Amino acid sequence: MRIFIMEEQFVQIMKEVIDANHYPFDIHVVTDSAAILQDIGELPNIYFLPADSSDLAWQIRELDVHGYLIFFTDCVHVLHDIVAQYIAPTAYIVKQEEISDAIAFALQSVYSREMVRQNTNFFVFDNENRVLYEDILYFETIPRTKKVKLHTCSGTYIIADFLKNIKARLVGHTEFSGVNSYLINLHNVIRIDRKNGIITFRGDAEIHAGRRVISAVYRDFQAHYSH
Known about the structure:
This is Response regulator. The chain is of the alpha/beta class and 227 residues long.
């Protein structure tokens, strides 16, 4: 896994943290945003970005859905602006505070989350079919039936079950947000357009939903990525 960083003054601290913890991370110092976008390569990656680079973060998020975005900021309140734009940062580092500890915490968080992500976890249905949790986009109820449609990165499936039963099975998976006839994987949401009622997923899949669904997913999205 590669680390892209534009703040060269923090590279030595980062190297020391990586060496001390034996993290499998390679550091790539870049001078501009174009270099990051051109060299993303194998996914996911780690991105240390200035807090004022939200446009770049958007572009990265669309290319690297599971990438880890970490922001350097001079002010802790900037985090709320970042979250409000649905960019979903992994961590943020306030420059006035102890930089070494903050970088160590951020990298430890990335490493822990990546180990969990790489764990092969499948959603099993109809006794024999299975889909990786990370590939699930969303579930939706099929009106006037006892069936649910499962949308994934590779296709769709019809499940003979009630959505409430699927929600119960996934109660321990905090990345899923469910309201009304939808159950949405927040990890694969790349944009929430509250004005027009559109949720966009990786791969450009979209759903048009009512105000209640949009509000609930937006609230859960903020809560999930503000830890």
